[in-house]
Every structure is written in C-alpha cells, then in structure tokens.
Amino acid sequence: MAKEIKLLGTWASPFSHRIELALKLKGLQFQYLEEDLSNKSQLLLQSNPVHKKIPVLIHNGNPISESLLIMEYIDETWQHQNPLLPKDPYGRAAARFWAKFIDEKVLWTAFKAYNDKGKEQEDAIEEFSQQLKFLEEELKGKEYFGGERFGFVDIASFFILQFLRVLQEVKEAELMTEEKYPVLFEWMEKLQGNEVVAGCLPPREKHVAYVRARRAAAEEAASKTKAA
Amino acid sequence: MADEVILLDKWVSPFGMRVRIALAEKGIKYEYRDEDLRNKGELLLKMNPVHKKIPVLIHNGKPVCESNIIVQYVDEVWHDKAPLLPSDPYLRAQARFWADFVDKKIYDTGRKLWTTKGDEQKSATEEFIGYLKTLEAELGDKPYYGGEKMNYVDVTMIPFYSWFHTYEASGNFSIESHCPKLMAWAKRCMQHESVSKTLPEPEKNYEFVLQMKKRLGIE
C-alpha cells in the first residue's frame, strides 16, 4: 500500500520547518502544501478543527497536529533510520522536557524580551538570558543535545533559535550573541553546515523582510487599539 | 535491586495528582513528600532547577519533571502493568494530543475563574465551558477516553474534578448543567481506587484556594 504523506505548513514557521526536517531525515516522500493563514484551507480546518493551526501531518488521510507530537509520531511510525528520540525512558523524558521548555518558555519569553517595553521587557530580557544559560549548560560537552547525533531537541530548538535570530535582526537587539553563548552558537553553525538541515530554512533575507513586515503590522494594530 | 521512587508534590496540585494516579494504577511503591511551595526545599531546587516546580519524580536518584512527561516515563518504565498509552502510533498521537489540550487549556483558564471578577471572569467562564464541551465531545459515548479502561487522557484530566467545585463556586455556574456526560465520566473514574484515594475532597480544595486568595490579596 502506498504511503501517502501530506504536510500542511507555512514557509516562515519554525514549527513547520521541524516537520520538514523530520520527514527528510527519515527519507520520506511527502507532499508539501503551503497554507495562507489569513485564508485557511478547508483541509486545514477539517484536519485540525480544535486549534486550526499548522503544521498538520496527514498520513493516509489521518491528521496529526502539534509539531512535537507530529515528530514523535514520525519517529514511532518510521523507525528504520535516523531515530529522533533515544530508546531509554529517561533519555526520552529528558528530550521531551527540553523541547517543552523551548516551546512553552523560551519562545514566549523571547517575544517579550524583543517586543515589549519598560519593566516587562527588562524582566523578560533577564529571564530569556537565564533560559539561554540553561540551554548552554545542557549542551556543554556534547556534540548535540541528542549526544553524538542530532535528534529531537536539536530539531525542536534549532529552528526556533534561528527564528529568534531573525527577530533579533529586525529589532536590532543583541540578546543572543556568540560572546554570551559560544556553545549554542557553535552548535547552530554546525547544524547550518548540514545540507539537509539548511535546506529546511527559508532564505534569510526573505525571512527577515517577512518578520519585519509582520512586526510593523502588529505594532500599528497595537497603537490603533491604544488610540481607540 | 529495588527501585527507589520519590515524588515531590503538593496535595492540591492537579499536576501532582496525575502522577499519583499513574503510580497507583501500576501498583508502584513510592515515598510521597508534600512540599512547602512558599519555602522551597533544597532537594526540589536541586532536582528541578529550571522550573523549581512540583511534581518531580526522583527514580533511583534521577529527576523527571513536568507531570505529563512523568506520566509517560512511568508508563514506559513500568510498561507491563496497566498501560496508559496504546501501542498504535496514531492512537498514541491522538491520546497525546488530548492530554496536551488539557494541559494547555484547563488549568490556566480555570485559574482565571478564581483570580478575576466581572467581565474578565465572565469571559473566562465562557471559554472554560467551551473547552469542557470540546472534551465532552471527544469522549462521545465511550466510558473513558481510553475506551473500556482509563488511559493517559483520563489520568491527565480527572484531577481537575477535585477543582470543579472551586471553579463552579468562583464562576457561579454548574458544570453538570453544561456537560452532564463529562460529569458522568468523572464519577466513573472516581470509582477507581487510584483516583478516589488521590483526589482531595472538593471542599478542602476550595478552602485552600480561599486561603490562597486572601494571601495574594485577591477578593
């Protein structure tokens, strides 16, 4: 039976990039469908009625949502090459922990650190710096978060941190620097040098322009709300 | 060599309750330690330096943090008894999706019910009922989210039953009137000793929240 795999994603989303990479690492053929989030397709709305978000993986007509869960599904369904998670329960728990930390803490704190103002921004900057220190400590002495080979946490965090570097460029800030986080930067360079990984990143200039435009629109909308 | 299992927890925490239920379902012996969260102990801070939160499971000296991650760990280590996740990858993905939904929606929105007033509370109440209805729809006519037996999703959600009275009293609404099937499911789960011995009395929970509100200066 032919396996049919579809990925609903968007070119700018780090969550989407994760799934592209996971599928490529497993050597899988898939159909990529670019979603317009301002005009969501029927397929997306039917496949993810609860959250209506990308990415969504559709495997033989069955939809799976939430990028980290999709990655686990891919890993469990196609076990033949490039395992993403370790086999031992403790290693798996640790991997899930760090991926969750990135998604639920680092990303949101970083948004505040780059976008907020005043005391809220100051607090977020401090928290973000502490979070990056935790990541730096976790990575120290290892080739990758996954050990000798990159895996679940590397995939989860790489695209998010690359996205944050784009945001950093747009905001002309210097919260993440090579001086402060040499281990993280060395690891990012290593992954950027990997053809398969780099192939999942959008062109830098295009990404910067896109994030710049979205930030401008968000700031304009926020000032209109204040004025109203 | 016997396993040494310690659980750092707080009796009222729905997150901690998930772990206690999972351990009880699997018949695992462990040492329970109720933590003082206003004066966090050295062991908690050492075992969960990133979040400094309970629950933390310490298995043979090694910490596992984040309740849903702990429950999956427990399920994988003690896989031969009362499996909480199905073996089929697609069904596992669905179970994880719903546990993730509970995690993302129920606690935070529920918290707004007893920390806000007026319009904010009203809209939080509507949002909360909406999430419960979504969960009720997913349950359908099944006795449990796991079908004939409780599974990962049941374990993730049932602790909030001990918080229902607190939510209802705060938001001045009846969960039963909106979600009768969900209430029936909760009572069904409560017939399991692993659940009934873990969940505190709803009144105790409400008293705790009232005390906390006083301390936090919330009316």
Automatic annotation (TrEMBL), chain A:
Signal sequence extent? none
- PROSITE patterns from the UniProt entry: GST_CTER, GST_NTER
Q: Which Pfam families match?
A: GST_C, GST_N
Quote a single Gene Ontology cellular component term: cytoplasm
Could you give a single Gene Ontology term from the biological process aspect? glutathione metabolic process
* Enzyme nomenclature, EC number: 2.5.1.18
Q: Which GO terms describe its molecular function?
A: glutathione transferase activity
Q: Which reaction does it catalyse?
A: RX + glutathione = an S-substituted glutathione + a halide anion + H(+)
In this entry, which stretches build a coiled coil?
A: none
Domain GST C-terminal: start-end pairs: 88-217
- Presence of the UniProt keyword Cytoplasm in the record: no
* Keyword tRNA-binding annotated: no
Q: Say which enzyme class the record assigns.
A: transferase
Domain GST N-terminal, first and last residues per copy: 3-82
| Alphabetized InterPro entries for the sequence | Glutathione-S-Trfase_C-like (IPR010987), Glutathione-S-Trfase_C_sf (IPR036282), Glutathione_S-Trfase (IPR040079), Glutathione_S-Trfase_N (IPR004045), GST_C (IPR004046), GST_C_Tau (IPR045074), Omega/Tau-like (IPR045073), Thioredoxin-like_sf (IPR036249)
- Which domain of life does the UniProt lineage start with? Eukaryota
Could you list this entry's UniProt keywords, alphabetically sorted.
Transferase
Q: Tell me its family.
A: Belongs to the GST superfamily.
What PANTHER family does the entry give?
A: GLUTATHIONE S-TRANSFERASE, GST, SUPERFAMILY, GST DOMAIN CONTAINING, GLUTATHIONE TRANSFERASE
What name does UniProt use for this protein?
glutathione transferase
- Which organism is the protein's source? Linum trigynum
UniProtKB/TrEMBL annotation, chain B:
EC number, UniProt record: 2.5.1.18
Any GO BP annotation: glutathione metabolic process
Matching Pfam families, A to Z? GST_C, GST_N
Record InterPro entries: Glutathione-S-Trfase_C-like, Glutathione-S-Trfase_C_sf, Glutathione_S-Trfase, Glutathione_S-Trfase_N, GST_C, GST_C_Tau, Omega/Tau-like, Thioredoxin-like_sf
- Asked if the record carries the keyword Lipid biosynthesis, the reply is no
Q: GST N-terminal domain: from which residue to which, for each copy?
A: 3-82
Superkingdom of the source? Eukaryota
Catalytic activity entry: RX + glutathione = an S-substituted glutathione + a halide anion + H(+)
Q: What is this protein called?
A: glutathione transferase
- Record organism: Linum trigynum
Q: What is the lineage of its organism?
A: Eukaryota, Viridiplantae, Streptophyta, Embryophyta, Tracheophyta
